[in-house]
Specification:
about 400 residues, alpha/beta, Aspartate Aminotransferase, domain 1, Aspartate Aminotransferase, domain 2, 2 domains, seven-stranded mixed beta sheet, three-stranded antiparallel beta sheet, globular, binds pyridoxal-5'-phosphate
Length: about 400
């Protein structure tokens, strides 16, 4: 009954775990959630006020498919201010979240047989979007030896005549790692040499703790020409529910993505767009405060994880995830291969035994790691990781 394109779309392996966590909570159990993918802060007051004012002004109708001009101008102004990039309004598209921009890009750029290069560990939607668009994901493995950053050699080895797109998530979900300028330059040189289009997913740009952020498109005019910068308001302004993301890039690609958007979702929510203008144009101190809090929590979480025997954890540069290696513990986790991948079984064990929810690395194409989000209170980090340490000690 279902279309063939769904054959390759796997069921989310995290779904069962989050469903179990929810059911346990509903039973009154004190499950601590480290699987969260969004800031636990409120949306800035000035953004909420702008949305309320938009409703009161009856700004409640369809808008232009690519987004209201004020919001596209605010995005262009942000790219100029923060990233030194100069985009005209018709080189900017606002979508229902960065996810929607990424999907539009896959639909606009991939033909059957085209390959999309995806460094692993990857954000779990990348391969699925590529497949839905008819392309083929080609994975490039990275691990702790390169701080989970793809090297030019590894990229060069994965490129074929069918390579069309390169996904580059900087800083990365799930690893939290961010690239240095020289590393990005060596990847960009290959993209130019092999005529790749780069989807630079920079949604965690603002959540970077020590390193400076290097925007891929800003490397050179030649790089800008083949880059779609994907970003959004979800993570920087704690606005996940408003669904505001954007893409900036060559006019031809943005135009194609706009056509796809106009035929599928029309415009995005008018009221949310006004909130987006206020967030981008308004005071930015809220972002700094959030970053300061995440920095403290990161230190707390990494220290607690490193104190657990069998757990090794790099210090993440950004985002709000720790991605410890638990390889040494996996052969002691209850169950067998029939019960799922080892990291999935570990996630289930931790939920049962420690009442904490984490995301298994298998969800990101990583078989030796697990992801824990520190978008939660320090108190919960202390309590939850204390329980985790006890549960691991029993293995
Ligand atoms: C790497 C990455 N890209 C894109 C997104 C999508 O964000 P949104 O659609 O909320 O803008 C997420 C959300 O978790 C993400 O982690």
């Amino acid at each position: 009954m279902l279309a063939k394109r769904l054959d390759q779309i796997g069921v989310s392996i995290t779904l069962a775990i989050s469903a179990q966590a929810k059911a346990m909570r509903a039973d009154g159990r004190d499950v601590i959630d480290f699987s969260i993918g969004e800031p636990d802060f409120p949306t800035p007051a000035h953004a909420k006020d702008a949305a309320k004012a938009a409703i009161d002004a009856n700004f409640t109708h369809y808008t232009a498919a690519a987004g209201i001009p004020e919001l596209r101008r605010a995005v262009a102004a942000k790219l100029a201010r923060d990233n030194g990039l100069d985009y005209a309004i018709d080189e900017v598209l606002v979508s229902q979240g960065a996810k929607h921009s990424l999907f539009n890009a896959c639909m606009a750029l991939l033909d059957p047989g085209d390959e999309a290069l995806i460094p692993t560990p990857y954000w779990l939607s990348y391969p699925q979007m590529v497949r839905l668009a008819g392309g083929e994901p080609v994975f490039i493995e990275t691990d702790e030896r390169s701080d989970f950053r793809v090297t030019a050699d590894a990229l060069a080895a994965a490129i074929t005549p069918r390579s069309k797109l390169l996904f580059l998530n900087n800083p990365s979900n799930p690893t939290g790692m961010a690239y240095d300028r020289a590393e990005l330059e060596s990847l960009a040189a290959l993209a130019i040499e092999h005529d790749l289009i780069v989807l630079a997913d920079e949604i965690y740009e603002k959540l970077l703790y020590d390193k400076p952020f290097v925007c891929f498109a800003s490397l050179s005019p030649e790089v800008r020409e083949r880059t779609l910068t994907i970003n959004g308001l979800s993570k920087a302004y704690a606005m996940t529910g408003w669904r505001l993301g954007y893409a900036a890039g060559p006019k031809k690609i943005i135009g194609a993505m706009t056509s796809i958007q106009s035929q599928t979702t029309s415009s995005l929510c008018s009221v949310a767009q006004r909130a987006g203008v206020a967030a981008l144009d308004g005071p930015q101190e809220v972002v700094d405060e959030m970053v300061a809090t995440f920095r403290e929590r990161r230190a707390h979480m990494v220290a607690a994880l490193r104190a657990m025997p069998g757990v090794e954890c790099l210090e993440p540069d950004g985002a709000f995830y720790a991605f410890p290696n638990v390889e040494g513990l996996l052969d002691r986790v209850p169950g067998s291969g029939a019960d799922g991948a080892p990291t999935v079984r570990l996630a289930r064990y931790l939920l049962d035994e420690a009442e904490i929810a984490i995301v298994p690395g298998a969800a990101f194409g990583a078989e030796r790691n697990i992801r824990l989000s520190y978008a939660c209170s320090t108190e919960n980090i202390t309590r939850g990781l204390g329980r985790m340490a006890d549960a691991l000690a029993k293995l």
